[in-house]
Here is the input.
Amino acid sequence: MTETLPPTAQGIARAASLLRDGALVALPTETVYGLAADARNGAAVAGIYAAKGRPSFNPLIVHLPDAESAKRYVEWSDDADRLAQAFWPGALTLVLPLKPDNGLSSLVTAGLPSLAVRVPAHPAMTQVLKNLNGPVAAPSANPSGKISATTAAHVLSGLDGRIAAVLDDGPCTVGLESTIIGLAGPGPTLLRAGGLPAEAIEAALGQRLETIDGAEIIAPGQLQSHYAPGAAVRLNAKAADPGEVLLGFGEMTCDLNLSPSGDLTEAAANLFDYLHQLDATGKPIAVVQLPDHGLGRAINDRLTRAAAPR
Ligand code: TXA
Ligand code: MG
Here is the structure.
């Protein structure tokens, strides 16, 4: 039912033409696969929520081919410029004040006065954005609350028959969703740890990032239970208990090892695929502790939410 498209000129043109017609297409990015719709088409954007089974309208990230196109939709600032220069295209999303008369469906922002924008670093994705010549709203291409998709097979396992097509360009290289920085308030704020380490962002800004407290949760990625496999997840395991499968890191014996050499970049790229694989065993998943710096912070964030009470 759902078409699988190759990352060729033809596949890219087909993806863009489906989007133009208001259809949903899963597209690869360097972070995770996104479930894309034309951000100007309210019915198409509503379709994203229906396909994901998202219970409420949460704001979506708008994807653009370059920073110049982002300025049509948001109030630009010096901090935005600094971060865009340093990290776009890449695994960084900026939340900025929304411009009036932006032409976007109001479902994209869920009524907020701000908008999340990202310029992804993925050749096929960029080609689709250029071909469409318009803004693309795209949450991660997984059913709501479930593990994110880093391959076309993951996308189909959750959304087959619910979306028009998936553009298959192999596994995502980063493997974690983008880091989200809020620039619509008083100071730069880390809204979601992700594929670009917060330390790199602080270095580029020459300033520490504020963090949000639990009281002002605005991102569903900030919801406690998220990225959840079917089976229970137990954190900080030293070894597997009977009946469990063990997700390891560094030199050790386990069922799947995120990075035997202890490399956090490799671990990030493997995280969601290994959770999908261990989930398929139907057994509870024990996970060892990972370092909490660099990409480890985002990995631990995802694992904590995967383990949270549902
Ligand atoms: O890497 C990524 O960011 C992927 C790829 C596809 O680009 N997308 C992604 O989208 O992870 P999603 O919908 O799963 O997560 C987007 C996050 C949500 O937590 C949402 O609440 C937050 O961005 N967000 C969007 N607009 C916002 C806004 N105006 N203010 C605060 N948070 C916002
Ligand atoms: Mg998501």
Notes: Residues 3-211 form a domain with the DHBP synthase fold (CATH 3.90.870.10). DSSP finds ten helices and 15 strands in the chain.
